[in-house]
Design brief:
Low-confidence stretches: none
CATH class of the largest domain: Alpha Beta
Order of helices and strands: EEEHEEHEEHHHHHEHEEHHEEHHHHHE
CATH architecture of the largest domain: 2-Layer Sandwich
Amino acid sequence: MPETVFHQTFDNGLTLLGYPMPHLRSAAVNILVPAGCSRDPKGEEGMASILSDMITRGAGKRNNRELTLAMDAIGFDRACSPGPINMRVWGSSLARNLPQSMEFLADILLRPQLPKKELAAAKALALQEIQALEDDPKRKTLVELGKKHFPFPLGNDPRGTAEGIRAITSTSLERYWKDHFKPEGAILAVAGNLEWKVLRDQVEKLFGKWKGKKGPELKLQPAPGGVHHIPKETEQVQIGFAWPSVPPTHPEYFNAVGMVNVLSGGMSSRLFTEVREKRGLCYSVWASYKNVNNLGAITCYAGTTTDKAQETLDVLFDQLKKLEKGIKEEEVRRVKIGIKSSLLIQEESSSSRAGSIASDWYYYGRVRPLEEIQKAVDGLTTEKILKHAKKFPPKKITLVTLGARPLKPPV
């Protein structure tokens, strides 16, 4: 049975998407607002992160405690976080409480109180997050890899910097909200047990008077790339590297995903088997596809010990080279099963579906039917993935290591 996805773009530029899932008792909302961390003001890095905290500390006529209690009273589970481009606000509740949940979201987005007396607490929490990064070498390595591999400011860390957090004031926070929380380019996606006409009318009533044009296009600066080392006296070594891949909108996208899953699609994948299990070189190893504003990349990570670090890096690159020499049918079958399992889970979750249709609309300007995605996955073959691996080999690699001493990049 074909999927039904309702769509309405209002006069102010806000796009509403509705995906009925009548077999569920829940409904989920996923909102993208073009106010991500790549737009953090210079000298106030971390602004988007602070705003994502502050917009729920009181909104409309309710202060922080009143808003929290009111949302908890209807079981409205919610969260907010900044990505590179968009601020993502999402939540879920029983379907019968969807209208009230939408009212809460309208207050949060359009009428946040941004209480001055609570800014210090929000900044203190943000500074703790930044400090915690120093105690998490894996995450620190991957954060630095993002900064070095993607063009500035797309590689910005949402956490910002300690100096940037300290510089934020109530005035600059309110200015950032006014400048970037605009309906043009915003996407509001709802999935679950919903009535489209009722939802559309309520959204028009709640958000129809929201005004404003989205900000100018980002001016990107070339990525640093290259080889970088973070010195830290420790017995463990963190290895992260990335190279360019195709974007999600590229015809080769699913071949890229298939290739990554051959490398790192579970405990029977090549990296886990060859690097960890057979040789015992590292305690953690994986590869993943990453996309930032339609710039694709393949990211690899390994955590190991100082004495095995260089060998781990060498073997990782050797496995990448071997990928171009051949792929087994059994590997492709496993990849297909894994991707289809993820699709099945997504199809049964209103939260997952709300998130995916919002992302689809942002990147494709439409919602891809699950049947279309499944057909693309079914079409994966050893020949297609192998051809992709040869066509898009690891080149222009960005390497970041963290440990006592730097490693020698493989040739």
